[in-house]
From TrEMBL:
<keyword id="KW-0266">Ethylene biosynthesis</keyword>
<keyword id="KW-0560">Oxidoreductase</keyword>
<comment type="similarity">
    <text>Belongs to the iron/ascorbate-dependent oxidoreductase family.</text>
</comment>
<keyword id="KW-0479">Metal-binding</keyword>
<dbReference type="GO" id="GO:0102276">
    <property type="term" value="F:2-oxoglutarate oxygenase/decarboxylase (ethylene-forming) activity"/>
</dbReference>
<dbReference type="InterPro" id="IPR027443">
    <property type="entry name" value="IPNS-like_sf"/>
</dbReference>
<comment type="subunit">
    <text>Monomer.</text>
</comment>
<dbReference type="InterPro" id="IPR044861">
    <property type="entry name" value="IPNS-like_FE2OG_OXY"/>
</dbReference>
<dbReference type="InterPro" id="IPR050231">
    <property type="entry name" value="Iron_ascorbate_oxido_reductase"/>
</dbReference>
<keyword id="KW-0408">Iron</keyword>
<dbReference type="InterPro" id="IPR005123">
    <property type="entry name" value="Oxoglu/Fe-dep_dioxygenase_dom"/>
</dbReference>
<dbReference type="InterPro" id="IPR026992">
    <property type="entry name" value="DIOX_N"/>
</dbReference>
<dbReference type="GO" id="GO:0046872">
    <property type="term" value="F:metal ion binding"/>
</dbReference>
<protein>
    <recommendedName>
        <fullName>2-oxoglutarate-dependent ethylene/succinate-forming enzyme</fullName>
        <ecNumber>1.13.12.19</ecNumber>
        <ecNumber>1.14.20.7</ecNumber>
    </recommendedName>
</protein>
<comment type="pathway">
    <text>Alkene biosynthesis; ethylene biosynthesis via 2-oxoglutarate.</text>
</comment>
<feature type="domain" description="Fe2OG dioxygenase">
    <location>
        <begin position="164"/>
        <end position="271"/>
    </location>
</feature>
<dbReference type="GO" id="GO:0009693">
    <property type="term" value="P:ethylene biosynthetic process"/>
</dbReference>
Length: 309
């Protein structure tokens, strides 16, 4: 744990260790989530071959002709599935549209929205479903550690997420054309906070992710092989009464990478839509009383999505 760079935490003692080892890792995660809202997690148990398969499938999808991608375009916040073209999303509403394209999918629920699959890639669906299952398993372990860190029952957060109302998002940041100068404030992804409880972010080696420090400075979250970036989102910020922080971050266009592709995969972990997000008892005190009225996780997500597109 350091104070001048985003912490790197070895998660393997939480998965394989005894009670004391698990408690020590949970405490590191609490410190990182309080001070930074971001940390790198190594030893999380995510198979490297599954991650490589998911990145290969993502690259194949974004290489499809635009007509194929637009045929399964994102339609509305209620389903929040499908293809999002370059500049369609504006994460910072004071800036131009983001220089990225994306594809959203989610674990399917009986009677719920269905994922949109590209007809030209017959193996894409099983590859993505396989990867989502691995992300759910990793996210549940992280949530279990958070519960321990906040002196809650081990299944406190996992139970509140057990309907898997998550979103998996494939992201592609195309190269900028030769001689192109970004417009005023234009970025690959504008400054924003994430909407849900936690995010698992898998990066390639292109770089560009930046995290805003408490002092207001932007710090590069340089890719570290073998790690996943974990950050706490707005609902965790609210749930924990600001004990865990939801930190602004963005994807910049570093000069050395503006003429190459950047790929990343984000797994947005979101509570069950009917889960009530109310201040956790161990996160309130006389000096830090509850700051927010309870809200359902689903209402919060719809408010944020409708403001973004």
């Amino acid at each position: 744990m350091t104070t001048d760079s985003i912490p790197v935490i070895d998660f393997s003692p939480f998965i394989n260790g005894d009670t004391a080892a698990r408690a020590a890792v949970a405490q590191q995660m609490r410190q990182a989530s309080s001070a930074w809202g971001f940390f790198y997690l190594s030893g999380c148990g995510m198979p490297a071959d599954q991650l490589a398969e998911a990145f290969a499938a993502s690259k194949a999808f974004f290489a499809l002709p635009d007509d194929d991608k637009q045929a399964i375009a994102w339609q509305n916040a209620e389903s929040n599935r499908g293809y999002v073209g370059v500049r369609r999303e504006r994460l910072d509403d004071s800036k131009p549209g983001d220089l990225k394209e994306a594809f959203n999918l989610a674990p399917e629920q009986p009677g719920g929205p269905r994922n949109l699959w590209p007809a030209a890639l017959p193996t894409f669906q099983p590859e993505m479903e396989h990867f989502m299952a691995a992300c759910i398993a990793t996210a549940d372990r992280v949530l279990e550690a958070f519960a321990l860190a906040l002196e809650q029952p081990d299944d406190f957060f996992v139970t509140a997420h057990n309907r898997h109302h998550h979103t998996l998002r494939l992201l592609h940041y195309p190269p900028l054309p030769e001689g192109y100068t970004p417009q005023d404030g234009e970025n690959r992804a504008g400054a924003h906070t994430d909407y849900g409880s936690i995010t698992l972010l898998f990066q390639d080696d292109a770089g560009g992710l930046e995290v805003r420090t408490r002092a207001g400075e932007w710090l590069a979250a340089t890719p570290i092989p073998g790690t996943v970036v974990v950050n706490t989102g707005d609902l965790m910020h609210r749930w924990t009464n600001h004990v865990f922080c939801s930190t602004p971050h963005r994807v910049n266009v570093p000069p050395q990478a503006q003429h190459r592709d950047r790929f990343s995969i984000a797994f947005f972990c979101h509570p069950n839509k009917d889960a009530e997000i109310a201040c956790i008892d161990t996160c309130a005190s006389a000096d830090n009383p509850a700051r927010y009225a309870p809200i359902s996780a689903g209402d919060h997500l719809l408010q944020r999505l409708n403001a973004t597109y």
